[in-house]
Amino acid sequence: MAKSKKTKIHKKIDGQLLQLNKKFSDLKMKQKDKITGWVYEEYRKYVTEYDKVPDLLADEQIVEVVIDKINEAQIWIPEGEIYDYYRRKKPQLQRRLDNEKVIKFKSYVSFYKSIVDQDRASVVICNLKHEIIYMNPAAVTSCAKRGGDKLIGRSLLDCHNPESRDKIQRVVDWFAADKSHNFVYTFHNEKLNKDVYMVALRDEGKLIGYYEKHEYRNVETMKQYDLW
């Protein structure tokens, strides 16, 4: 059975003949793309500014801004159709924004990881269970006799005597006691002329782990700007 064709309802408004029952799907592809872009732009702007998903009032404000842009572009579509379109697409808008944040975060992680990997001092990162979750190349090399990167996944405490284990746990407990507790001087290695610190790792203030920071005191022997 053939599908019945939709009857278009027109009305002359301000000298223009407008289709009152026009749907979003009736728009030209370029018009759809423009409106879709405006909707996402305003949605992202709100979430970025207020750090929350828009409520009903905010939804109306977002749609009103989009409608203003549609009118400026002289695109005719009933306002109710834009409200319906926004409500249908809102979950997808949030998923798209979340995906963009993940992609952006991953791009930053590459920068952070590179900073640690290029450090000539050993960096061994542990979680709060004292499990080694990451070792930079310098740490892998310095710990080669103990297993190198095979230490990842094992407990850092296994590499220390009972006295050192107790000190490590006391420092971690101190980190956990206050957000301002983040840096502790733990040791000076005379042979290598370096100071060693324990540093807290936090996610928005919450303690998630720690690592050792090595600061060498020897005068640099590398020539300045030795690029050749």
UniProtKB/TrEMBL annotation:
It comes from the Bacteria. InterPro entries: PAS-like_dom_sf. This is PAS domain-containing protein. It comes from Eubacterium ramulus. The lineage of its organism: Bacteria, Bacillati, Bacillota, Clostridia, Eubacteriales.
